[in-house]
Design brief:
264 residues; Rossmann fold; seven-stranded parallel sheet; globular; two-stranded antiparallel sheet; single chain; alpha/beta; 9 strands
Length: 264
């Protein structure tokens, strides 16, 4: 799919981290980018920098997402590239020792449901609502292509660690969406893929560099090659290639420097 000047894109979580890098790369390729995020201050500032628009969107709320797409399309037209990076989750072991009671405590079902909504259900919500708009747009090329949707999973989808029962299983669910959704949308010319990033130097991780430099060095050393955390720009580079290469469909890409996560 040729990324043309003025083509519309939507990036969730575009105010920081992997989403921000993706929004920058798409804007540099000439696209008009709509950022969906809860962080209004950072999102508006970033949108101004890249010549895009900011939309205050809660990915766990259907009405909020619908309104976000409506506003983005009013500003830029129908998006042809959608990149979903935003998420919400909690952490905890299935069973953990509770010192107060002197016994095991179960991770509440409500915590699991929160993560399922913030990772898996929100991925379906964003992808399906974007696809609905794309399906009614004119084809972009002789293949009949109408758009490309890229979801963000994680290496935890395959290498879930202790304490990641919510995150790992729900990110695996994101990967599980890809093939059946791509098949559902094949007659509309809409591609669906996912990326499984490893350990990336996002603002959250960069905070560790000052707080715990020893842990920071250990994380960098744990990556086989190159022996460092990933740069968000490297994630964004893959996002562009997935959008441009029309033969990439129904695939889950690991982007991780060959890391395989240990149990803890």
């Amino acid at each position: 799919m040729e990324l043309t000047e003025g083509m519309a894109a939507v990036v969730t979580g575009g105010a920081s981290g992997l989403g921000k890098a993706s929004a920058i790369a798409l804007a540099q390729a000439g696209l008009k980018v709509a950022i969906f995020d809860l962080n209004r201050e950072a999102g508006e500032a970033h949108a101004r920098e890249i010549g895009g628009t900011f939309h205050h969107v809660d990915i766990t709320d259907e009405d909020s997402v619908v309104a976000g797409f409506e506003a983005a399309r009013a500003a830029h037209g129908q998006e042809r590239v959608t990149v979903h990076c935003a998420m919400a989750s909690r952490r905890g072991k299935t069973l953990g020792w509770d010192k107060a009671s002197g016994g095991y405590k179960r991770l509440p079902t409500e915590d699991y449901a929160f993560g399922a909504e913030g990772i898996l259900v929100s991925s379906y919500r964003i992808a399906s609502l974007s696809a609905l708009g794309m399906a009614n747009a004119e084809p972009l090329n002789e293949d009949g292509e109408r758009g490309c949707i890229t979801l963000t999973a994680s290496v935890a989808a395959q290498d879930g660690q202790i304490g990641q029962v919510i995150y790992g299983s729900c990110k695996a669910g994101v990967n599980g969406l890809v093939l059946p959704m791509a098949r559902d949308l094949m007659d509309m010319g809409i591609r669906v893929n996912s990326v499984m990033p490893g350990i990336f130097a996002t603002p959250l991780m960069l905070g560790m560099k000052d707080r715990n430099p020893q842990m920071w060095d250990q994380l960098n050393a744990s990556v086989p090659f190159p022996k460092r955390l990933g740069h968000p720009e490297e994630f964004a580079s893959l996002i562009l290639e997935i959008a441009r290469n029309s033969y990439l469909n129904a695939h889950q890409f690991r982007l991780d420097g060959a890391i395989r996560m240990p149990p803890r």
